[in-house]
Amino acid sequence: xxxxxxxxxxxxxxxxxxxxSCGAVVKVSAAGTVSSxxxxxxxxxxxxxxxxxxxxxxxxxxxxxxxSGTAPAVGRAVLAANGNGGVKTAESGDTYxxxxxxxxxxxxxxxx
Length: 112
Fold this sequence. Notes:
Blueprint: E1 11-17, E2 25-30, E3 33-36, E4 45-51, E5 54-60, E6 62-66, E7 75-81, E8 87-89, E9 95-102, E10 107-111
Parallel strand pairs: 1-3
Antiparallel strand pairs: 1-5, 2-3, 2-4, 4-5, 6-10, 7-8, 7-9, 9-10
C-alpha cells in the first residue's frame, strides 16, 4: 500500500510572479510578489502553478520538491533553497518536517 500526502492541509495563495518557475521553492520578494530563491536562502512556499504574471504558491500542507547534496533525513530537518528550485540541508535556518524521500528521484516530501 502506498501512502499519499497530497491535498492534506493545502493552503494556496496567488501572488504576482517575478521569475518563479513551476515546482520551485520561492520567497516573498515584494508586496504581493514572489520570486525564485538563491542558494542558501529561506523559502516561503512552493510555486505549484505559474501562469505568466501570476504564481499559485503553496504556503501550507505537504509538497514534494527536488533536493541537491545529501538527502535530508526523514523527520525534522533544517532546509534552505539550493538555488536551482529545490532544497538542500542547511546548518541553520528553518526546520521542516520531512515525511518521505526518494533518493532515486532526488525528491523529498515536506510539510510547509
